[in-house]
Write a structure and sequence with these properties.
The complex is a heterodimer of chains A (167) and B (446).
Chain A (H helix, E strand, L loop, with lengths): L13 H11 L11 H12 L4 H11 L3 H8 L13 E6 L2 H5 L2 H12 L12 E6 L11 E3 L2 E3 L4 H12 L1
Parallel strand pairs in A: 1-2
Antiparallel strand pairs in A: 1-3, 3-4
Helix pairs in contact in A: 2-3, 3-4
Chain B lengths: L17 H6 L4 H9 L2 H11 L11 H6 L10 E6 L8 H8 L1 H15 L3 E6 L4 H16 L15 E6 L9 H8 L23 E5 H13 L1 H5 L2 E2 L2 E2 L1 E8 L5 E6 L4 H6 L13 E5 L8 E2 H5 L11 H4 L3 H4 L7 E6 L4 H15 L5 H18 L7 H12 L7 H25 L1 H4 L14
Parallel strand pairs in B: 1-2, 1-4, 2-3, 7-11
Antiparallel strand pairs in B: 5-6, 7-8, 9-10, 9-11
Helix pairs in contact in B: 2-6, 2-9, 3-6, 5-6, 6-9, 15-16, 15-18, 16-17, 16-18, 17-18
The chains are: A alpha+beta (167), B alpha/beta (446).
Chain lengths: 167, 446
């Protein structure tokens, strides 16, 4: 999936642009920078990742310097600042999930996908990331793909999920 | 039947919709507040209730409200902290997902009390699906005239904005949250000035946890005295406890403060005991930051009395033999859990989540993680245990925000109560690094 990046200009779809304008209007006059985190989510939803061109586009929308976007995008963990696969698995590695066997299930998931944490499968379908606590500790082990939480994971359940998403 | 302030109707089918919530007494607090009460009268009731910040710090909510500066012509803000990220804590996630209108109603009542016309709910970005649930609930409330201009003809205007975070534990710290809400990196601010004077956009701001704000509707409806009559001593009211780990029934439970820890773990009404065939070894009672306790100290105070689920009882004995209620992230460990591995895991968390502003935290958390890693993986040095204690001491109290303390306490307490287990890892590396190997020396198991 590590294709060379093309300098492709990024523009929001008309629906997303309307959404972006609605978000910017939520904040008091002169405080439009508050829209930065929501707009970066919108960008990633459209592009699949938070590309440099996309960040520059967001900077122009908010009338701020590109560096103000880069420093924020690199601070928070949810923005993928490198290209990722179609499905990004964000796997909780924190204590309570580990107590419920999270480490063993993660080992199984890596074996199943044939990749290590931080890598993408050769077919570009899956990227595996380890993340910190997802606030679902009573239902661990847990991972998240986009907005969806997958909870009470077992090796069998992981296989089912991967099979389903591979179709 | 124990009093349920937040979760009484949580399992009613359709309670996430305005109509069903309304049918079960929802939004009566907004009617009562806006039609019959002054803002100051609400602040008084919340003070009388004695409700303490449910995010972890336990600071009296009414007092926090009364600190809010009110200069002429400057807007004031209420910001709800829904950045729930403390390992072991998942109550706000549950509450917002199941009964979103409870938070919306609390936001309206609280915003009115504080004189805020635009309020924010800052939700951790990973919970995007919950953000959609909240936005839908807000749209419903607005359509029914409970939000927007001139609410219920009272002349009071309120707009609610749901703001997603970007993935950062530090944004649960209130000034980091405000920085983030302004579209910046989540670096905590120096205090003073406190947010009550200069908060969001340099305006007076109150930041409260989801659960704290959600209690205000009940307090408006029933009065502060009624709330204060629940619970024990200065631990008034109910608390949501997120129970996880080696128990039979993990989940979120609303308890009246004052329930014995032993009952909470072993009674069928709550955790239902340790999973079959295993024994209770250790407890983290209030989220990963608070000191870990061995089972005997978790259940009993130094004077032999039962330890209770309350702010005072959990902290009885100080850090020598006590802990904290914190966020109510209740993590139970049985005898199969390795304390060294768990401490390393938590240290890795704090290292990962340190914002990097203060050297003691930025460097110290990484150092502790490294040393714990080498002990866990069979390369520990004899002096490592003392080194960890020393590093933890040098972080604690020396940082802008409490993340440094939160990183130091789990390490210091694990060594305080489970030193033999660390020593065993250093003395017997070959044995300790076998798959599934756990220290089996002398320890209290219940």
């Amino acid at each position: 999936m590590s294709k060379t990046l093309e300098n492709k200009a990024v523009v929001f779809t008309p629906e997303r642009l309307a959404k972006a304008e609605e978000i910017i209007a939520r904040y008091p006059e002169g405080r439009q920078k508050s829209a930065l985190l929501p707009l970066l989510h919108l960008l990633q939803e459209q592009e699949g990742w938070t590309s440099p061109e996309g960040m520059d586009y967001v900077a122009r929308l908010l009338d701020i310097q590109p560096i103000e976007v880069y420093e924020v995008a690199t601070f928070y963990t949810m923005y993928h600042i490198e290209p990722v696969g179609k499905h990004v698995i964000e796997y909780c590695r924190t204590g309570p999930c580990c107590l419920m066997g999270g480490e063993d299930v993660l080992a199984h998931l890596k074996q199943r996908l044939g990749i290590e944490t931080g890598q993408t499968t050769v077919d570009g379908q899956f990227t595996l990331k380890e993340v910190e606590c997802l606030a679902a500790c009573g239902m661990g082990p847990v991972f998240q793909i986009r907005e969806k939480y997958y909870m009470n994971l077992t090796n069998e359940r992981v296989d089912e999920i991967i099979d389903e998403l591979s179709k | 039947m124990a009093t349920k302030i937040l979760t009484e109707h949580i399992n009613v089918p359709g309670i996430e919709t305005f109509d069903v919530y309304r049918k079960h007494g929802g939004y009566t607090a907004v009617e009562k507040a806006l039609k019959t009460m002054t803002p100051d009268a609400i602040v008084e009731e919340v003070k009388k209730a004695g409700v303490r910040g449910r995010g972890g710090a336990g600071f009296p909510m009414g007092m926090k409200w009364s600190f809010l500066a009110k200069p002429e012509g400057v807007p004031r803000y209420l910001v709800c902290n829904a950045d729930e990220s403390e390992p072991g804590t998942f109550k706000d996630h549950y509450l917002m997902k199941m009964i979103p209108h409870l938070l919306i109603e609390g936001m309206i009542v609280s915003s009115y009390a504080l004189g805020a016309n635009k309020s924010f709910i800052y939700v951790r970005g990973e919970l995007m699906y919950v953000i959609h649930i909240l936005e839908k609930a807000i749209a419903e409330a607005k359509a029914k005239g409970f939000l927007g201009k001139n609410i219920l003809g009272s002349g009071y205007d309120l707009e609610l904005v749901v703001q997603p975070g970007g993935g950062a534990y530090i944004c649960g710290e209130e000034t980091a949250l405000l920085e983030s809400l302004e579209g910046k990196r989540g670096n905590p601010r120096n205090k003073p000035p406190f947010p009550a004077v200069k908060g969001l956009y340099q305006s007076p701001t109150v930041v409260n946890n989801v659960e704290s704000i959600a209690t205000t509707s009940w307090i408006v409806n029933n009065g502060g005295d009624a709330y204060a009559a629940i619970g024990i001593g200065r631990s008034t009211g109910t608390k949501l406890i997120s129970a996880s780990g080696h128990i039979r029934k993990p989940g979120v439970y609303e308890i009246e403060l004052g329930v014995p820890v032993e009952d909470f773990i072993f009674a069928d009404e709550w955790c239902g005991g340790i999973r079959p065939g295993h024994k209770f070894k250790a407890l983290v009672a209030g989220g990963s930051s608070v000191p870990i306790l061995p089972s005997n100290l978790a259940l009993t105070l130094a004077n032999g009395e039962k330890r209770l689920m309350s702010y005072e009882s959990l902290s009885d004995g100080g850090f020598a033999t006590g802990t904290m209620l914190g966020s109510g992230g209740f993590i139970v460990f049985d005898e199969t859990a390795c304390i060294v591995r768990n401490t390393w895991n938590f240290s890795r968390f704090y290292h990962h989540e340190s914002c990097g502003q203060c050297s003691p935290c930025r460097e110290g958390t990484g150092w502790m993680e490294k040393v714990l890693h080498r002990i866990e993986y069979g390369h520990g040095h004899q002096q490592d245990i003392d080194l960890l204690v020393d590093v933890a001491k040098k972080i604690e109290g020396n940082t802008i925000c409490p993340l440094g303390d939160a990183a130091a306490w789990p390490v210091a307490s694990a060594i305080r109560h489970f030193r033999d287990e660390f020593q065993w890892h250093i003395d017997h590396p070959a044995e300790a690094t076998q798959p599934g190997a756990v220290y089996r020396g002398e320890m209290a198991l219940v």
